[in-house]
Design goal:
By secondary structure, this protein is mainly alpha-helical. It has one domain. The chain is about 60% helix and about 5% strand. It has 2 helices and 2 strands. α1 packs antiparallel against α2. The longest helix has about 35 residues. The protein is elongated.
């Protein structure tokens, strides 16, 4: 039996190291599902805040790099869309399970 993959939440793309991958947990002491969701939502929230700060800096003239601002905006949008789709799938799965006859 292989060890489960521990999901660390949605992480923003790191330009220096590339995409971050979930780490394989070798111990049996994984976090609860609630903690995993909390970290994932917190990560999406942080990505949104980073995007908003970049927009504010651009409007205020603190930065002139419109490309970075646009990339941060797209990253935040994709993270949010992924989170919403994951929520929709979870609700759909719950509804399907609740309709099963025992």
């Amino acid at each position: 039996m292989s060890s489960p993959i521990e999901i660390r939440g949605i992480q923003p793309f790191d330009m220096e190291t590339g995409l971050r991958r979930p780490e394989v947990s070798t111990t049996g002491t994984g976090d609860s599902f609630g903690k995993m969701l909390t970290r994932a939502v917190g990560s999406v929230d942080q990505t949104m805040k980073t995007s908003e700060q970049g927009i504010q800096d651009f409007v205020a003239g603190k930065t002139e790099n419109v490309h970075e601002v646009m990339i941060d905006m797209q990253r935040a949008q994709l993270s949010f869309q992924l989170m919403v789709e994951m929520r929709n799938k979870a609700i759909e799965t719950y509804q399907e399970i609740s309709r099963m006859q025992i």
